[in-house]
Amino acid sequence: MLILAIAFYSATFFAQKDSTGVKLKDIKIKGNISTTEGVYNPLSPSKAAFYSAIFPGMGQMYNEKYWKAPIVWAALAIPTYYYQVNNSAYKRFRTAYKLRKNGLQDEFTSDNGISSVSLQTLETAQKQLRENRDMSLLSGVIIYILQIVEASVNAHLLQFNTDDNLSFKPALIMNPIRFETPSVGLVIKYNF
């Protein structure tokens, strides 16, 4: 323990000394200092991801991309709907299968004992409906995660400088010397 404590505190022993000799208390500032926040906000992407995780589509609204929120809601509503449909049908066939195995009448058996669906069909339907239900759940989880990632990435990209000086402007420039045989080329100009 002693060696570990010496290793941690040794960093302060070998630290650089202040070469200016000016202490922070001795600095006097004349006038007002304006502390305006710049364009870059490092917490913005994490806030957008947090809001999207709490309520889907809220991160998109935080980024002021209000038109994306209904798309997120619809994208999550579709797998939710199919999950519920497949789950209820799975439970229906599962109940019928259990009743049939116990020798009781199920919803697919008429009053005179004739069944419209075989036992093998009930098993196959259960298997297929369970797979469909699980795929709906998986696609819903993937869409949920993607909307969180999208909100975070969009918040990152909103902080980049996108003024008109950074745009790409293609132009056709004809060569007057080779007017009859046009030449094709690419020229990239950087202006700072």
Describe this entry's structure for a reader.
By secondary structure, the protein is mainly α. It has a domain at 42-160. The protein is built from five helices and no strands. The protein has helices at residues 2-13, 44-54, 58-62, 68-101, 119-157. Helix 2 (44-54) packs antiparallel against helix 5. The longest helix has 39 residues, at 119-157. InterPro entries: DUF5683 (IPR043738). It comes from Polaribacter filamentus. Pfam families: DUF5683. This is DUF5683 domain-containing protein.
Q: Can you give the helix content as a percent range?
A: 40-55%
Average pLDDT metric = 82
Specify the structural class.
mainly alpha
Strand portion, in percent?
under 5%
Profile the largest sheet: none
Organism: Polaribacter filamentus
Protein name: DUF5683 domain-containing protein
Pfam families: DUF5683 (PF18935)
Entry keywords:
DUF5683, 5 helices, single chain, mainly alpha, 192 residues
Furnish the topology, listing elements before pairings.
Elements: H1 2-13, H2 44-54, H3 58-62, H4 68-101, H5 119-157
Summarize this entry quickly.
With 192 residues, this protein is mainly α. 53% of the residues lie in helices and 0% in strands. It is flat and about 95 Å long.
